[in-house]
Design brief:
Layout: H1 14-26, H2 37-40, H3 45-62, H4 66-79, H5 85-98, H6 105-120, H7 124-137, H8 139-153
Length: 158
């Protein structure tokens, strides 16, 4: 590596590394002009943008770039009002597998927005079915949702 002036990062997606480097040089990642609210619901742009943000958040955490974590978390929060419950559930495995338990920011955002969207969702049966399916793989998400609901029932912020 030192002889060739390259760094081998075999565990990371090259396109995500490119986005991370773009952020380091410009303070921005992808072009969000394409993700205006009226376009978010079409062609999977919303889900794709959210999963990209989660992956970049994980890289920021992995490589110690707190500004990238803050940037991607803020944009994730910006997109979640447009997300359906299914979109949030789609991101949960990446959030919980891609960040350490000690880093709660993105996990808490996902739980908070999941609960908010679930309350607005007419099809609660499918919502809970989705959570139960995820729970087999990601028990911590289920536990976090239950804890947040209990705290909210007792008037405490979750």
């Amino acid at each position: 590596e030192a002889m060739s002036s390259t760094i081998d990062l075999p565990d990371d997606d090259p396109s995500r590394i490119e986005e991370m480097l773009r952020f380091l040089y410009t303070g921005r990642v992808f072009d969000y002009s394409a993700t205006l609210p009226e376009r978010l619901m079409s062609d999977g742009i919303l889900r794709s943008s959210m999963t990209s943000l989660v992956a970049l958040y994980s890289l920021g955490d992995k490589y110690g770039i707190p500004t990238l974590c803050r940037y991607t978390e803020e944009y994730f929060e910006h997109l979640t009002p447009y997300a359906m419950v299914d979109d949030l559930l789609y991101c949960v495995p990446e959030i919980y597998h891609g960040t350490p338990e000690s880093n709660r920011d993105l996990r808490d955002a996902a739980v908070r927005h999941f609960i908010k969207r679930s309350e607005e969702d007419i099809d609660m049966e499918n919502t809970m079915e989705g959570v139960l399916q995820l729970s087999d793989d990601i028990k911590q998400f289920r536990d976090d949702v239950i804890t947040a609901l209990i705290l909210a029932a007792h008037g405490r912020p979750g």
